Amino acid sequence: MYGTNGASENHILDGPGNLFERNKTDVFGFSSVDLGEITKIRIGHDNSGFGPGWFLDKVVVKNILTSQSYFFLSGKWFSKDEDDGSIEREIP
Protein backbone atom coordinates (compact mmCIF):
# COMPACT_ATOMS: atom_id res chain seq x y z
CA MET A 1 0.00 0.00 0.00
CA TYR A 2 1.09 3.55 -0.69
CA GLY A 3 -0.02 6.59 1.25
CA THR A 4 0.74 10.24 1.82
CA ASN A 5 3.23 9.25 4.59
CA GLY A 6 5.05 6.51 2.65
CA ALA A 7 4.64 2.88 1.64
CA SER A 8 4.11 -0.32 3.57
CA GLU A 9 6.13 -3.48 3.27
CA ASN A 10 4.74 -6.27 1.11
CA HIS A 11 2.13 -8.48 2.78
CA ILE A 12 1.35 -12.05 1.81
CA LEU A 13 -2.42 -12.53 1.74
CA ASP A 14 -2.80 -16.03 3.12
CA GLY A 15 -5.12 -17.85 5.44
CA PRO A 16 -7.13 -21.01 6.03
CA GLY A 17 -9.40 -22.53 3.42
CA ASN A 18 -9.61 -21.92 -0.30
CA LEU A 19 -8.82 -18.30 -1.10
CA PHE A 20 -9.57 -16.23 -4.21
CA GLU A 21 -12.42 -18.43 -5.44
CA ARG A 22 -15.18 -17.32 -7.80
CA ASN A 23 -17.95 -15.20 -6.20
CA LYS A 24 -16.14 -15.15 -2.86
CA THR A 25 -15.02 -12.31 -0.61
CA ASP A 26 -11.76 -12.85 1.25
CA VAL A 27 -10.81 -10.80 4.33
CA PHE A 28 -7.24 -10.34 5.56
CA GLY A 29 -5.82 -8.41 8.50
CA PHE A 30 -2.34 -7.02 9.09
CA SER A 31 -0.55 -4.20 10.88
CA SER A 32 1.29 -1.35 9.24
CA VAL A 33 2.94 1.93 10.13
CA ASP A 34 0.75 5.02 9.67
CA LEU A 35 0.67 5.55 5.91
CA GLY A 36 -1.61 8.59 6.06
CA GLU A 37 -4.26 8.69 3.34
CA ILE A 38 -3.97 5.53 1.22
CA THR A 39 -3.44 6.57 -2.41
CA LYS A 40 -2.86 3.27 -4.24
CA ILE A 41 -2.19 -0.41 -3.74
CA ARG A 42 -0.07 -3.00 -5.51
CA ILE A 43 -1.53 -6.50 -5.66
CA GLY A 44 -0.62 -9.66 -7.50
CA HIS A 45 0.28 -13.31 -7.27
CA ASP A 46 3.13 -15.67 -8.15
CA ASN A 47 1.18 -17.63 -10.80
CA SER A 48 1.66 -20.93 -8.94
CA GLY A 49 -0.80 -23.74 -8.36
CA PHE A 50 -3.68 -25.10 -10.43
CA GLY A 51 -5.60 -22.38 -12.29
CA PRO A 52 -3.71 -19.53 -10.61
CA GLY A 53 -5.44 -16.64 -12.40
CA TRP A 54 -8.22 -14.71 -10.69
CA PHE A 55 -10.56 -11.83 -11.40
CA LEU A 56 -10.39 -8.96 -8.92
CA ASP A 57 -13.47 -6.76 -8.63
CA LYS A 58 -12.28 -4.42 -5.89
CA VAL A 59 -10.18 -4.07 -2.76
CA VAL A 60 -11.41 -2.31 0.36
CA VAL A 61 -8.76 -1.21 2.86
CA LYS A 62 -10.11 -0.26 6.28
CA ASN A 63 -8.11 1.42 9.02
CA ILE A 64 -9.55 -0.14 12.18
CA LEU A 65 -8.22 2.71 14.35
CA THR A 66 -9.96 5.49 12.41
CA SER A 67 -12.73 3.48 10.66
CA GLN A 68 -11.64 5.16 7.40
CA SER A 69 -12.20 2.96 4.34
CA TYR A 70 -10.43 3.23 0.99
CA PHE A 71 -11.87 1.64 -2.15
CA PHE A 72 -9.74 0.48 -5.08
CA LEU A 73 -11.67 -0.68 -8.14
CA SER A 74 -9.99 -3.21 -10.42
CA GLY A 75 -12.43 -5.09 -12.64
CA LYS A 76 -9.53 -7.00 -14.22
CA TRP A 77 -8.09 -10.47 -14.45
CA PHE A 78 -4.77 -11.26 -12.81
CA SER A 79 -3.86 -14.05 -15.22
CA LYS A 80 -1.25 -14.79 -17.86
CA ASP A 81 -4.13 -16.00 -20.08
CA GLU A 82 -6.61 -13.11 -19.69
CA ASP A 83 -6.75 -9.35 -20.36
CA ASP A 84 -3.19 -8.06 -20.82
CA GLY A 85 -1.51 -11.05 -19.13
CA SER A 86 -0.55 -9.14 -15.97
CA ILE A 87 -0.39 -10.98 -12.66
CA GLU A 88 0.52 -7.84 -10.68
CA ARG A 89 -0.96 -4.35 -10.87
CA GLU A 90 -0.95 -0.97 -9.15
CA ILE A 91 -4.47 0.27 -8.54
CA PRO A 92 -4.90 4.02 -7.80
TrEMBL record:
<protein>
    <recommendedName>
        <fullName>PLAT domain-containing protein</fullName>
    </recommendedName>
</protein>
<dbReference type="InterPro" id="IPR052970">
    <property type="entry name" value="Inner_ear_hair_cell_LOXHD"/>
</dbReference>
<feature type="domain" description="PLAT">
    <location>
        <begin position="1"/>
        <end position="92"/>
    </location>
</feature>
<dbReference type="Pfam" id="PF01477">
    <property type="entry name" value="PLAT"/>
</dbReference>
<dbReference type="InterPro" id="IPR036392">
    <property type="entry name" value="PLAT/LH2_dom_sf"/>
</dbReference>
<dbReference type="InterPro" id="IPR001024">
    <property type="entry name" value="PLAT/LH2_dom"/>
</dbReference>
